[in-house]
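Training component of the fellowship. As part of building independent skills, the fellow (R.M.) carried out the full modelling exercise for a liganded target. The chosen ligand was heme C. The inputs are recorded below so that the supervisory panel can assess the work.
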Amino acid sequence: MSQDVVSARRVIAIAAAMALSAVIIAAARAQNAPTAAAGPTLAKLAVENRKATYTLIGNYFRYFGAVAKGAAAYDEAEAARRATRIAFLSELVDENFPDGSNVGEPDSKAKADIWSNRADFDKRLKEFHAHAAAFVETNAREKGATEAFKAAVAALGQDCKGCHDTYKIK
Ligand code: HEC
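Fellow's submitted model of the complex:
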């Protein structure tokens, strides 16, 4: 085989590889583009993400309500694990209420007021983080269903209820 044929083949192989990677990059971009016909829109992703995150928060939190009422036994390792998860998850919600993610999303129960009262909603998100972080510390200090523990559960529960009453469709 002549040297020319080898180098021509190499050029063709490189061009083919470049064309393939361009296709892969275009496909990856299309997945994230808000108006892409294939893949979900950004608004739909935001709704899915916040619902999934809130579902997890609810599932981790339920235990504390039961412990505070005396319906479940306090377990130190279990309580610490759940409190840390809630604090982490509370941070994830923020990025999933982007502008426009309340429009045309039949699966969402988020009220449009979130976007027209943005400052108030953001303040509630911030308070929720602060209370969730404080709850991790209170729980670690109390190590049981004490009055301080119950007060911290109630404070966090009040954040859920306050925000739902104002910004979540029943
Ligand atoms: C700052 C406001 C805010 C706070 C604080 C908040 N939520 Fe929510 N929550 C919402 C909104 C808004 C929705 C509706 C989201 C949607 O459907 O797009 C929601 C939805 C939910 C859902 C339903 C998820 C689904 O799949 O439909 C659960 C469960 C939930 N929240 C639990 C909680 C719990 C438990 C807490 C407190 C520990 C809490 N939330 C705190 C605003 C809040």
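The panel noted the following from the submitted structure. Residues 93 and 132 are 13 Å apart (CA to CA). Residues 47, 50-51, 54-55, 57-58, 61, 108-110, 124-125, 128, 156, 159-160, 163-164, 167-168 surround heme C (CB under 6 Å).
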